[in-house]
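>> received
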Amino acid sequence: MPPKKKRTATKRTPKRALDPEVLPKMGQPTKYRKEYCQRIIEERAKGYSEMGFAGIIGVKRTTIADWAKKHPEFAEARELAACAAREFYDRVGIMGMTGKIAGFNVTAWIWIGKNCFGMRDKVEQHNTHGPLTVRFASGGSVSVGHQGLFPNSKKNED
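>> returned
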């Protein structure tokens, strides 16, 4: 197979058409604006989610993530905005629990915490039956209890 021939300028393809500096940019122009750095913080501080902010400015949620990858100043603003959103959530919760919000819906507040901020119920499991002793055919045994796994110093009593 003969090697591919390098493109050269012809009457149909002038030299400038082969220059990447002159080629037209492909795709839609970006909607990113530097002022969005401050705006995302402001909107999230009002309680809007990141997706809510995307809706406010008319872009997709994935666009916000793409901007954070391409623009370091927006990535930093996005992190600050997440903190502002959490501060809003905490402030509303404190006001609600101290009676400063009439008709405060604690169930909705908990739901938002779990689904938007990764909060979870603390689950503690306690063994109320004491340690479990496992005896081996070779004569040894181990006990598993509240302290974790530890050798059983007692002799088998069977």
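>> Residues 30-116 form one domain.
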